[in-house]
Every structure is written in structure tokens, then in C-alpha cells.
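Worked problem 6 (solution included).
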Amino acid sequence: QVASANDVNVCVFIASPFAHTFVQPSRPPDFSFARATHVLDLKQPLHLQHAAREAVRKAQKANPSAHVAQTMAEAHAVWQLYADSMALLNIRPRPWPFYQRLFRQSPAQVRFVWCEINGQATSGMLLLHHSDVVDYHFVGNTPLGRAHQTNSWLCLHELQHAQSTGARWWHWGASPTPAVADFKRRFGGREATYTLRGYCTGDVSSWRL
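Solution. The predicted structure is:
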């Protein structure tokens, strides 16, 4: 709304729920608003709620195995698990080209991971590692994965992996539905609010991508 009123076609948004990662710009923002998210301190012992522990135990009975994408095709297969899951919720998935560029440019920081039962993919997840923060971006499941609740097993697997790398924060992000928010709380995610600051930077009609 601010951009439209001022004939501005691009804005820079600066925000972080982690105070130590935020550098205050030299001028005040043109507009700002609060956002809600969920975060987890990885330096503290993991405390899963009863429902999460039971889901992990159920998945473990099926002996799942975890795999990390090494190729673009594997990364796309993980994204497809997410897109199919979003379709069931009538939610538009984030577009594949965005993640494709991330994976191509920063493969060491972009972690597409999935798990299998007897060679069949059941759940997939995308995490972005930067500084001491792990950003959770999405999870997706097949019908087999939902039946065995392997998304819970995969979440715990990746939380433990993040701790082993020395990461400090797990950023769950915002939740599209109350059920998703509840899932994050089951794994110890605490609600946090932070300010998103917007800076109008001008007209980009002459830019060429």
C-alpha cells in the first residue's frame, strides 16, 4: 500500500527474530509492521511434547532412512512432495524456480532432505543454513508418510543434525494454518514477534533480469 501510494515499484524488507543478526540501517524505515513466528534455541536440550514423541516412536517402527539431495532432480522431488501436500490444503506452494536458484547458487547452505520406508519416499523437508541459524521452509508427505508420521521423525533427525553442526537457532517461521503452528509447538517452538521494516528504494522499471 505504501509503495502504491508513492509510485514505488520495489522495497527492501529487513527483519530478523534474532536480535544479534539485525543491523539497524542509518535511517528510519518508511513503514513497518509486526510478524509472528516460532523459534527454537538449539543450545538447549530438545523438549518434545508427548504427541511429538509418540509420532516419532510410531515412525521408528517402520525403520525410515534419511537422504540429502545431491542433484537438482533429487531437490525437485523433495519440492514436489511439499507442493502435493500444499495442494491438499488448497494452499499455493512457493514456486520451484525460487528454490532451484537457491540450490544452484548455494548448495552447501540449502538442504533438501527426505526419508524413505523400504525405498519409497515418505516425507521431504527444506532447510536453509546461514550463520548460526537454520531456517525451516517446508515439509511434505506422501500418503505412506502421513500414515507412519515420518515427518515427525524427519524433523527430529534434522533438529539433531542442526545441533551437531553448532547451529544456535532453529527458525520455524510463520504458519499457514493453526495445525501447522501446533506441530511446531510440539517440537519446542516458542512463539516470537519481531518487526519487519520496509525501505522504499525507487523505480525499477528499467531493470533487466
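Discussion: The beta strands are 10-14, 31-41, 65-68, 110-117, 120-130, 133-141, 169-171, 190-202.
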